[in-house]
Design a protein that fits this description.
The complex is a heterodimer. Chain A is 49% helix and 11% strand. Chain A has 13 helices and eight strands. In chain A, the strands form two sheets. Chain A has a four-stranded parallel β-sheet, with helices on both faces. In chain A, strands 6-5-7-8 form a four-stranded parallel β-sheet, with helices on both faces. In chain A, helix 12 (215-226) links the parallel strand 7 and strand 8. In chain A, helix 2 crosses helix 13 (244-251) and helix 5 packs antiparallel against helix 6 (93-102). The radius of gyration of chain A is 18 Å and the shape is globular. The relative contact order of chain A is 0.15. By secondary structure, chain B is an alpha/beta fold. Helices cover 50% and strands 10% of the residues of chain B. In chain B, strand 5 and strand 6 form a beta hairpin. The longest helix of chain B has 21 residues, at 16-36. The mean pLDDT of chain B is 96. The chains are: A alpha/beta, B alpha/beta. Chains A and B meet through helix 1, helix 2, helix 3, helix 4 and helix 8 of A and helix 1, helix 2, helix 15, helix 17 and helix 18 of B.
Chain lengths: 253, 450
């Protein structure tokens, strides 16, 4: 299957290994991956900050860049959510609607169009799963506690399907990590307090690995885990933060 | 000047033990709500709730007039108040005409919105809030921090100290049973000696001309059933067309609010008791203006259950007072900006847009969408976003600036970026380890990309 890999601006600059893992895995799964999609950003940082007019140019570039492709994969639930829900109104309606239709979150693409809800692989660790809120409640890629659903969805299924992997039960399986884009800077104390609480939940269930659908949540949570603070119960092992693409790539080598 | 949400939240978080405790207390209610709403028909009930409110709002004028007609026919006097000031004057005039000196008031967020208590106090009328939580914050001289659990931010030891001063409980007494008993005696006294009762309303029923009041403490009933004058203060959006709609409301309200199937007391008053007077004050105070806004209209559907507060990780960790508005939490953050956008400009941003509030709302108000819409209306955005928007719309410049910025960050010692001014690192969050090569540069170097 021919597919374009869209690499969000901050992944490109700050966590390129996520995009490389996504590329490697998609090729391993038999995809022909184009890297010619090079619009930097879907416009979400400006849009969510309320600066709607400042978001239009990048959103429009994103939508226009999507025109030649029938499938675009993004290793971020949040950016995918923004493309799907806001590009039709933020960008040219026809181009925005096309972009919204062909863009998939990474796990959603593997389980959906690729029809591989389970991958053969092994990952012998205790893993805490954090589905980003926009993947969770925006794209409905996971069961929500508010709706009385158990953790589920493509990412959950892909993880559960790996040999040796234990998904640790969490006290609050779908609580926000506190990143929230400009919220992380606008309300930093609150943002970090929320992240600390998430990490406490992971480590108290003896997770060794934190895996997320969203590099942004990960950047925030990893930063908190790395900073010295009273977040790790004494003796708990270091928490390794991985994007789902990195984990799946490593597990299926 | 009142502090903005980030300032107030930071202050609340300065005591991490307290913030964690507050978070846990509200999460406990959220978990109770999850169990109580785990019904096969729950999503259908939410649909019915949304539909009945949308219907009532679409026929607001008609239904209110139908209510007035039927209520008047049963001997209830109906008053109309354009705004908070008019509401306060109407209430004061009724009380003054009846020679009232002492009022027993049960919970009403509308009277908080209108500032009724200080207004009546200035007119020489004593108001005792008879909901125990409300009484706690009243004695402490604070506004409620939650719309259903007004004193949720108070620890039992603190309540003990407050009651010791005001009710003479033994010093150091903090057993909830003993404090509740003292509160009950104290409030009984106020209820029995009140010259008038003021209550809020959870619903007005157009088809019956009746008023529905839900409490767990029975304090509204004790008040209205013992005082010779009963005044109901209510926002016009509380109107429902029929008793069928009331059935839906009662099924979703307490389940969402406290995880109970129904409140302990649910009273449908359709006429004054013989020999007493009953008044209903219908208050607009900006509601019809909201009704005219397609974008924000559905916020009028709110039944004030508080579920969005309990589920909100920001509310739970920053406390109700951090919002600086009478209604805190996600629903407050979309109501307050229409009252004063400049004063409340931080509230639409007091959210990560995680979406949990929208998913617990029993009448399906799309709170996250309205938060985003309010953000767009806040004037004077930081110039940063205009610059960022231009940068991210220019492929070549984005890559060039990225290359340059990463080089600088990698050359400069990390601690240089860790000062007080850096909001990312200040509360204890390390900067990401910046890579030497971006993905796009890697793809180009390896010939994967032109």
């Amino acid at each position: 299957m021919r597919v374009a890999l869209a690499v969000p601006c901050y992944v490109d600059q700050l966590r390129p290994q996520v995009a490389r893992a996504a590329l490697t895995l998609l090729e391993r799964l038999g995809c022909e991956v184009s890297l010619d999609f090079d619009a930097p950003c879907c416009g979400q940082p400006m849009h969510n900050a309320g600066a709607v007019s400042d978001a239009v140019a990048s959103a429009q570039l994103w939508a226009r860049s999507a025109a030649p492709f029938d499938a675009i994969v993004m290793p971020s639930g949040s950016c995918t959510h923004h493309v799907r829900h806001h590009l039709p109104s933020l960008a040219d309606p026809a181009q925005g609607t096309h972009a919204a239709r062909v863009t998939y979150e990474f796990c959603e693409f593997i389980a959906g169009p690729l029809r591989m809800p389970k991958l053969p692989g092994r990952f012998g660790h205790r893993v805490a799963m954090h589905l980003g809120c926009h993947a969770q409640r925006g794209l409905r890629l996971g069961g929500s506690s508010e709706l009385h659903q158990l953790p589920s969805g493509p990412m959950h299924a892909l993880l559960s399907g790996l040999e040796g992997l234990t998904l640790v039960p969490l006290d609050r399986p779908d609580e926000c990590c506190g990143f929230g884009g400009s919220f992380a800077i606008g309300e930093p104390e609150l943002s970090v307090a929320m992240g600390r609480a998430r990490i406490k939940d992971y480590t108290s269930h003896e997770a060794e690995v934190l895996v997320s659908s969203d590099p942004s949540c990960l950047m925030h949570l990893e930063g908190i885990a790395r900073a010295r603070g009273p977040i790790r119960p004494s003796g708990a092992r270091e928490l390794r933060a991985m994007h789902i693409a990195e984990l799946l790539e490593e597990a299926t080598r | 000047m009142t502090p903005t949400h980030p300032e107030a939240a930071k202050k609340f978080l300065a005591d991490p033990g307290r913030s964690d405790w507050h978070d846990q207390a509200l999460w406990f209610i959220r978990a109770k709500r999850d169990r109580a709403t785990d019904l096969p028909e729950w999503e259908a009930l939410r649909d019915a709730g949304a539909a009945m409110k949308a219907h009532a709002m679409s026929r607001l004028g008609e239904l209110l007039e139908e209510f007035e007609r039927r209520a008047a026919a049963s001997g209830i006097t109906v008053h109309w108040a354009r705004d908070a000031a008019e509401h306060n004057h109407v209430v004061r005039d009724i009380l003054t005409a009846a020679g009232v000196k002492r009022v027993a008031k049960s919970k009403s967020m509308l009277t908080e919105e209108c500032g009724l208590n200080p207004f009546l106090a200035a007119a020489g009328i004593e108001v005792v809030d008879t909901d125990l939580g409300e009484r706690i914050v009243q004695l402490a001289g604070e506004p409620p921090s939650h719309i259903v659990l007004p004193a949720i931010h108070w620890k039992k030891e603190e309540v003990g100290a407050l009651f010791h001063v005001h009710m003479g409980t033994p010093e150091g007494e903090s057993s909830p049973d003993a404090l509740a008993a003292a509160g009950r005696d104290h409030l009984r006294d106020a209820l029995l000696h009140a010259d008038a009762a003021i209550t809020g309303a959870n619903a007005l029923i157009a088809a019956t001309g009746g008023v529905v009041v839900c409490t767990n403490e029975g304090n509204a009933d004790l008040g209205m059933h013992s005082a010779p004058v009963h005044i109901v203060c209510v926002g016009i959006e509380k109107i429902l067309a029929s008793l069928d709609d009331l059935g839906v409301l009662l099924r979703i309200l307490a389940r969402s609010a406290t995880g109970q199937p129904i409140t302990a007391y649910t009273t449908h008053v359709t006429a004054p008791r013989p020999g007493t007077a009953m008044h209903v004050v219908l208050v607009d105070n900006g509601r019809t203006q909201r009704l005219a806004s397609p974008e924000f209209r559905s916020a009028l559907h709110c039944i004030r259950c508080g579920a969005c507060l309990n589920t909100c990780p920001i509310y739970r960790r920053s406390g109700g007072h951090s919002y600086g508005y009478v209604i805190p939490g996600p629903i407050g953050a979309i109501l307050a900006p229409s009252v004063d956008l400049e004063a409340h400009r931080a509230l639409p941003f007091a959210s990560t847009l995680c979406g949990s509030c929208g998913d617990v709302c029993p009448v399906r108000i799309d709170i996250p969408a309205q938060l985003l819409a309010w953000r767009a209306r806040v004037p004077a955005k930081p110039a940063l976003f205009a610059r960022l928007g231009r940068l991210l719309a220019d492929r070549t410049r984005f890559e060039r600036v990225g290359r340059w910025a990463r080089r600088v960050v990698r050359l400069v010692p990390t601690q240089w970026f860790g000062g007080r001014w850096n909001a990312w690192t200040r509360p204890g969050r390390a900067l990401p380890v910046v890579p030497a090569e971006s993905f796009r540069d890697w793809a180009r170097r390896t010939g994967r990309r032109k």
